[in-house]
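In response to reviewer comment 3 from the previous cycle, which asked for concrete evidence that the modeling workflow produces usable outputs, we include below a single protein chain processed end to end. The sequence was submitted unchanged, and the resulting structure tokens are shown without manual editing.
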Amino acid sequence: MNEKIEKITWEDSHFNIEGWIEFSEDFSIGECIVESYGKVIYEDENTIVITGNYIEENEHQIRQINGFVAIPKICIKERTTLKNG
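The workflow returned the following structure tokens.
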């Protein structure tokens, strides 16, 4: 299993939850920048998957994760390795 812990800064999609809003030619939504921290559990050419909660398999329990986030690499603005190996 990969032992990398990373901070990933990425742009997420977002939407309006307020109901009807004024819409004009000057409409602007801004960015939704997210910082995620966790252990890299999967990565391919398009996606990286991290988890913040991980149990390594041992004689008392099986390997487990509790929650994960899958981030499209096209959305990543910055990756920082906090622990490598």
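The chain has one domain: 5-83. We consider this sufficient to address the reviewer's concern, and the full set will be provided in the supplementary archive.
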